[in-house]
């Protein structure tokens, strides 16, 4: 009995701290070549934003070696818009990089949700 009460208390404590929102997932990506080695990205993110204390707050374009090539800051929660799509243009991708990964970040868990890897059009 004590263990069940402890488990319930731990669950409720987690719920109050914003854990309910889970991790931010990238659920869609559109990449377009702009010219001069630059690209634009339309990235869709899904996250159970619960307000200012727990929301998806950015997404990154990452090279295969882990270098962050671009970051789109998300300046407010999207509680009533899920998934949501935001754009970033002017991302320089060096020659020789054939794929990039898009990852999302939230204000409680950091990184860790679903990522999407896409081919870079040349």
Verbal overview:
This protein is mainly beta and 122 residues long. The protein has a single domain (21-119), classed as SOR catalytic domain (Immunoglobulin-like), CATH 2.60.40.730. It contains one helix and seven strands, in the order αβββββββ.
Classify the beta-strand content into a percent band: 35-45%
Order of helices and strands: HEEEEEEE
Query: How many runs of DSSP E, i.e. beta strands?
Result: 7
The separation of the N and C termini measures 62 Å
Which architecture does the CATH hierarchy give at level 2? Sandwich
Rounded to the nearest angstrom, the radius of gyration is 17 Å
Mean pLDDT: 86
CATH topology: Immunoglobulin-like
Main sheet attributes: strand count, strand direction, barrel closure: 4 strands, antiparallel
Shape: elongated
Broad CATH class: Mainly Beta
- Structurally, the number of domains stands at 1
What are the low-pLDDT stretches, counting only 5+ consecutive residues below 50? 1-19
> How many helices does DSSP assign?
1
Structural class designation: mainly beta
Can you give the helix content as a percent range? 10-25%
Q: In CATH, what is the homologous superfamily? A: SOR catalytic domain
Order of strands in the sheet with most strands:
4-3-6-7
